Amino acid sequence: MAVYRSAATDGFALLTSFGSRARMGVLAESFYAGPVSRFDLGNTLVVDLFSGTLESVTDISLLGGGNALVVETGPGQWEIVHAGAAELIAPGRYRLTRLLRGQRGTENAVVSVVPTGARVVVLDTALASLPISEADLGLPWNWRIGPASRPVSDETFVAATFTPEGVGLRPFSGGHVAQPWRTARTPGDLTIRWTRRSRSLAAYTWGAGDVPLAEESEGYEVDILDGSVVKRSLTSATTSALYTAAQQTADWGALLGPGQTLAIRIYQLSALIGRGAVRSVTLTF
């Protein structure tokens, strides 16, 4: 198969070609929301594959990235799921259980229900990655994909349009957001802390120490919310941000105290694409 592209509706140039078939399919049953950061033992993923097979894997293989599938949960939105157990229940139909949900930073793609018929793709070495450069991001392109043995004008070619957005370069959301604590040095100031995550594959190790940064520099923004309104944005170069007593008083008329809550959004920053995936948390005092 050959992939051509053009910034216009003609003048298509060959970008790349590939010769392997991905294992693709659709949901045979609705797929429901479930927990992340631990096994989802309550949901099943029932898939009709167009070609190929699936089989069960050990937990060691699963935690290392085995049996990974991507499920289209909405327009342009995909959740990566790892499945430990695969059971063939009909020709081409598999019931997948012992699931790890929202993998590789896709936890925000988990939705309440994904309907029957949604697309599913097995993530393996058969997939071909398009050689899109950083300079291509944000630019609308016209694409044509078809048999490499035929000219790009042939009727067998499929036309498509999409704009590369660099989602794979987006920093993951922060993890393990801690309850804020007040500093002894300046009474009333609040320190908000979290743990950095990394999109680097080197982060998938069990060794001690911080995960690789995977960005040009480390930086974060923390939005302080009043409902849907952003009252203030804090910036930080570390995995903590200081919400001073003066800022609290300016925003709320007094210091935040026991029984109150604070809704925040945390973003890690990318020098190339700006804010990464959001981590939304409501803190309780």
From TrEMBL:
InterPro entries xrefs: Rcc01698_C
- Looking at the record, the residues that make up the Rcc01698-like C-terminal domain are 22-121
**What protein does this entry describe?**
Rcc01698-like C-terminal domain-containing protein
Q: Which organism is it from?
A: Roseisalinus antarcticus
